[in-house]
Design brief:
With 280 residues, this protein is α/β, with parallel strands linked by helices. 28% of the residues lie in helices and 26% in strands.
Amino acid sequence: MAKLLSVASLSWSVDKQVIIKNISFDVNSGDIIGIIGPNGAGKTTLLKCLLNHYKNWQGTIKLKNKALSQYKPNELAQTFALVVQNSPPIFDLKVYDVVRMGLLPYKTLFARDSDTDKKNIISALEKVGLANSQAKFFNTLSGGEQQRVLIAKALVQKAKVLVLDEPTNHLDIYYQHQILQLVKALNITVIMTIHDLNLAAHYCNRLLLLDKGQLVSDNSVDKVLKPELLTKVFGLPCYRDDAQHCGVPRVYFYPASQTASNIPLANKPDNSANHEGELS
């Protein structure tokens, strides 16, 4: 796969406090990368540096072998689309108008839409299953529906990289899977912070594990989700179940006073059930 993004020795500090330090990794076209780690590990800060939201980071970020600082804001907007867990209020805008905002990197807010623009907006809404909701007001939608609208906006934006910050937070299990299934089906490059390790295992092909602002591991799901590594980073004993029926490893954390051998049988992972929503 072609290298799309290259990050080398990336660091960022605020008030003399180091938030991320010396992080290096590459992003290939088509990657679905999950950034995982404890609260305060620097996951969202890393995303903001990649999006050039912070200007005073140190190191190198290159997009297609060109320094990020050499791109104009509208050029970056044509490359990156951001979907956050808590969308800012979009007052009095209907779903169609929110999705239409994906055109802004290419034209002004009040420019007349072409027939092609209109077809692209409707097509994006169809892909996220909301074609019949285009006349609804955005703020009346459920959290999962709002996420899908913002993904449709990213499709209209023709973004090459979809960046998501905790996209499944505050969603129930059904909508967590619905959103991530949709993201995976888009067949574009995805970088997302994600809290649930089991969801990350199911939908990502690579994981970046951060701890205290540093990159601890950058590898495949199988190699990052090692019990001994996760125990060290998250501070709790970890049990891993390589369940064959779902095709990916699943991990479980338990109180430090217990071990995997003395967890009551009723609380141990059951290989015959789906535990994608377990604590991670």
